[in-house]
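Thread: "does anyone have the structure for this chain?"

Original post by V.I.:
We have the sequence but no experimental structure in hand. Need at least a predicted one for the grant figures.
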Amino acid sequence: MSDTTQKLAKALADGPHNLNGLEFLQRIADGRLPPPSFAVLLDIRPVEADKGRAVFAAVPDTRFYNPLGTVHGGFAATMLDTCMGCAVHTRLKAGQSYTTLDLVVHYVRRISAASGELRAEGTVLHLGRTTASASGRLIDARGRLLAHATASCQIFSTPSEH
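Reply from O.Q.:
Generated one for you, tokens below.
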């Protein structure tokens, strides 16, 4: 287990399940909780979070290129899944969690290191008792739409053991 993963596991064991989703995300953003290890690996960081909305940023580079010389679509999908899932999380109460049920991504233009900083903006469309849906947009440094997506999430009680 990586150092970051160990720190997050310890932080989770110490009680952030007592936080609502918005508080949880804000603590990651301000450094009181460590980011998840996948976000460290991909250098995806939270930028904004409000009730029903989450924005993340990352700068793609050649580490994420596919054999055709552009950023792999999975990088964009991960950013979109992150912003939409976290948008849902901002609406959840303490003791609730979520997981992505489906993710549909529409790619609009290619992404490269020249795209500059990317912003993934997620918004909740519907929040029910057991499911939620969200939409997301991925924008480049010039404000151009790169991809858009929708996702649905299952909502459940956070397990007491992690």
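V.I.: this helps a lot. The longest helix spans residues 73-89.
O.Q.: and The radius of gyration is 16 Å.
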